[in-house]
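Contributing new records

If you add data, match the layout below exactly. Sequence lines come first and carry their own label; structure lines follow with theirs. Keep one chain per record. Anything else will be rejected by the validation script.
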Amino acid sequence: MKKFLTAAAVGLAFALPAAVGLACGYCAEDKIASVYDHAAVKKALGNGHQVAFFHIEGILVPERAIRRALLASAESVEGVDRGSVRISLETASLSLAFDSRRTSLAAVQTALDSKLAAKRLSLFYFQGMDRPAELKAARR
């Protein structure tokens, strides 16, 4: 019995730090991680495009139809790279790449917000990338 209790205590000691390290899904880092695709980011930045990370504000029902509608809306915005949009309904996050020579971040967000308004959704920009390994926080 003593060996069992010792083994259980050792197992619990190793399990606690792992539980503390679990993603919360609410912080910016977790939101970015949920929609980050290294290949898509590398391709976008290699083409001189920018990558933007957004929080989706509003009530999201985790259904395929909502995901498809969000994807179609984002990819239909002028300047957004087709195939670059990533969505996580679980963390209410969206990322996309866009050609900053054709359009601005503000124009992309405004166009997408107007498309999402019918679904009572909007976007909150919180991070962007225009160079490898460099996340830029929203300017305040």
